[in-house]
């Protein structure tokens, strides 16, 4: 077995050996054991399910909430010659149907699913007929209401056991508190507890949390001082562009990145950063998942993340090569106040949630009793503007509606245009002979894209226009014309979020909302914000604070974070001041003012503190207001 797993690792990934814990997890899966793997960012989680899946007959079903990450992993597997597909919101029903057929009857080894797809009877029934060898649950903390990123659709996952009772589950996450670890195993109905965990400690990372009035200037100084490449995380898309431009204006090669970019732009920006053409990428938290760049010397946060889990994951993208790196969080008092303001607006009233549902159905033009199973492009900006709703409470209302099974909302992600021929090759050839208009376009498709007769393939209308020297809109019109002739199916690109109604529309007054769950979530979120406050306010060690939050006890101070450095500096300063005092008082007596003025190290407050400490420990004695060194004590 060991030889097989290592040969698979070498054949597809080029590695001679596994990283710590990877091989143990692979063996546990091959033995059919349900497994939870806690591996920090960069620990190589995907290898843990990809290797055993390739060693076993059948298909591995991977559940992930991140469409962009799913698409990246599918693309990477295909580059290695491994058959993989993904199903997520935004795909047509026919496109989903064909993909599932290929998983049942074809040679697909990996099927990536967004969790909300499990609401579909079609998807569940097709999974029943697949020869599944493993269920891999990525971002498994999303199943726990105690987790920092709870996703209601994850609660459907245990139903997969009804379809394939003897297939093991592998749950993977980079961040989980002890309570979340227990909850994941319970919600996924593990047969027996089985947890592999790596320490949350990263000895090469020097964590810092700095209260800073001038963040931009401090950021510049740190980037110049630290060298190497890095990531700067900000709160919203607008700030990514503003901060990147600020860095460029100050001579630092930088670019911006956020989820609203199309797939080509995202890939180009990511590649430029990976290949050292850009030194700094300024991004929202959409950036970094699945990216393995070793030489990241700094990760700077210009805003406070919503939880320690999120911060740990993003900060952990620094120093994956094992060399010294610096995750630095800069904040102001108003940043902390804004977090708590957002907290209050994230838990709207039941009445508000009901109103959002009513407005949403009207916005999507859904009749009472209709809408179940239908997906819509959803522009939340246009929606909130039309009904004059505040964005933060509206987003929260949609999440609570999702949790109670009324709808499912997916992230905004770029989905390219796709097409599939609906007739056989002979019919296509007949059209080419009869139509000079369509012949060049059909030839171009057939020459450049394989598999278009079997499944939907991604296309680029701009590339067609360039090669055929035609306007973009003419290419679109031709594709639409071929669709009207029923020669092919054409699905235009989209980058809009998707919303799917899971139940027929009801009167909003009859809408059940679980108020007790909302109160529980509010309590959990409050605890997470308190943990952020405690991390910022700790006076001991940042690493100890982080590891303690994730349940690791008796952790020694790291010696490299900002607090440890201050303490070490203070201890060294104390020793210098003590030496000066001993020299000054060995042969003469001095009053306290003269003594403080004569000491050269430190400020007056530090000098006085050391003097008092020496008096308390009787190394310095005081008689009638005069201080002298106690020779008998030394």
UniProtKB/TrEMBL annotation:
Its EC number is 5.6.2.4. It catalyses: Couples ATP hydrolysis with the unwinding of duplex DNA by translocating in the 3'-5' direction. Keywords: ATP-binding, DNA-binding, Helicase, Hydrolase, Isomerase, Metal-binding, Nucleotide-binding. Gene3D superfamilies: P-loop containing nucleotide triphosphate hydrolases (3.40.50.300), Winged helix-like DNA-binding domain superfamily/Winged helix DNA-binding domain (1.10.10.10). Residues 26-194 form the Helicase ATP-binding domain. GO terms for cellular component: bacterial nucleoid; cytoplasm; replisome. One of its GO terms (molecular function) is hydrolase activity. GO terms for biological process: DNA recombination; DNA repair. InterPro entries: DEAD/DEAH_box_helicase_dom, DNA_helicase_ATP-dep_RecQ, Helicase_ATP-bd, Helicase_C-like, P-loop_NTPase, RecQ_Zn-bd, WH-like_DNA-bd_sf. It is an enzyme of class 5 (isomerase). Residues 215-364 form the Helicase C-terminal domain. Pfam families: DEAD (PF00270), Helicase_C (PF00271), RecQ_Zn_bind (PF16124). This is ATP-dependent DNA helicase RecQ.
């Amino acid at each position: 077995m060991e030889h097989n797993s290592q040969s698979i690792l070498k054949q597809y990934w080029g590695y001679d050996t596994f990283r710590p814990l990877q091989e143990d997890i692979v063996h546990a899966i091959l033995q059919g054991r349900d497994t939870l793997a806690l591996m920090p960012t960069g620990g190589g989680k995907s290898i843990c399910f990809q290797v055993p899946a390739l060693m076993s007959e059948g298909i591995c079903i991977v559940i992930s909430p991140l469409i962009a990450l799913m698409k990246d992993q599918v693309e990477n597997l295909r580059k290695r010659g491994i058959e993989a597909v993904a199903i997520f919101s935004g795909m047509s029903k026919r496109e989903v149907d064909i993909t599932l057929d290929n998983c049942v009857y074809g040679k697909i080894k990996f099927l990536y699913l967004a969790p909300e797809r499990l609401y579909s009877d079609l998807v569940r029934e097709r999974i029943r007929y697949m020869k599944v060898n493993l269920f891999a649950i990525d971002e498994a903390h999303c199943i726990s209401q105690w987790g920092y990123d709870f996703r209601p659709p994850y609660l459907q996952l245990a139903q997969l056991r009804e379809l394939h009772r003897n297939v093991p589950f592998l749950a993977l996450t980079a961040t989980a508190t002890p309570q979340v670890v227990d909850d994941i195993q319970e919600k996924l109905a593990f047969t027996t507890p089985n947890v592999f965990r790596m320490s949350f400690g990263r000895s090469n990372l020097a964590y810092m949390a700095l209260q800073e009035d001038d963040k931009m200037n401090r950021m510049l100084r740190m980037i110049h001082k630290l060298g190497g490449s890095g990531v700067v995380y900000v709160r919203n898309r607008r700030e990514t562009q503003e901060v990147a431009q600020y860095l460029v204006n100050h001579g630092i090669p930088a670019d911006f990145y956020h989820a609203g970019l199309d797939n080509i732009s995202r890939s180009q920006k990511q590649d430029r950063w990976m290949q050292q053409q850009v030194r700094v990428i300024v991004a929202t938290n959409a950036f970094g998942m699945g990216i393995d760049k070793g030489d990241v010397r700094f990760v700077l946060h210009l805003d406070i993340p919503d939880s320690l889990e999120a911060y740990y994951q993003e900060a952990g993208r620094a120093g994956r090569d094992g060399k010294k790196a610096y995750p630095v969080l800069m904040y102001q008092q108003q940043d902390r106040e804004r977090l708590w303001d957002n907290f209050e607006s994230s838990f709207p009233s039941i009445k508000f949630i009901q109103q959002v549902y009513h407005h949403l159905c009207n916005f999507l033009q859904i009749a009472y009793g209709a809408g179940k199973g239908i997906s819509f492009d959803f522009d939340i900006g246009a929606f909130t503007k039309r009904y004059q709703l505040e964005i933060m409470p509206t987003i929260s209302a949609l999440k609570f509606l999702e949790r109670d099974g009324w709808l499912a909302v997916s992230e905004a992600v770029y989905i390219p245009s796709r097409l599939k021929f609906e007739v056989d090759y002979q019919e296509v050839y007949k059209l080419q002979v009869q139509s000079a208009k369509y012949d060049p376009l059909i030839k171009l498709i057939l020459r450049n894209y394989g598999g278009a007769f079997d499944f939907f393939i991604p296309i680029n209308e701009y590339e067609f226009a360039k090669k055929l020297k035609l306007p973009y809109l003419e290419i679109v019109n031709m594709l639409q014309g071929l669709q009207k002739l029923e020669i092919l199916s054409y699905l235009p690109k989209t980058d809009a979020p998707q919303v799917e109604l899971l139940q027929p529309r009801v009167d909003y007054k009859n809408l059940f909302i679980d108020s007790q769950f909302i109160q529980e979530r509010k309590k959990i979120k409050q605890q997470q914000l308190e943990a952020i406050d405690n991390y910022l306010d700790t006076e001991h060690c940042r690493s100890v604070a982080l590891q303690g939050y994730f349940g690791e006890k008796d952790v020694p101070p790291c010696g490299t974070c900002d607090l440890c450095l201050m303490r070490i500096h203070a201890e060294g300063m104390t020793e210098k001041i003590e030496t000066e005092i001993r020299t000054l008082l060995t042969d003469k007596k001095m009053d306290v003012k003269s003594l403080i003025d004569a000491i050269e190290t430190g400020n007056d407050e530090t000098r006085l503190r050391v003097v008092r400490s020496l008096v308390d420990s009787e190394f310095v004695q005081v008689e009638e207001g005069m201080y002298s060194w106690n020779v008998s004590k030394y």
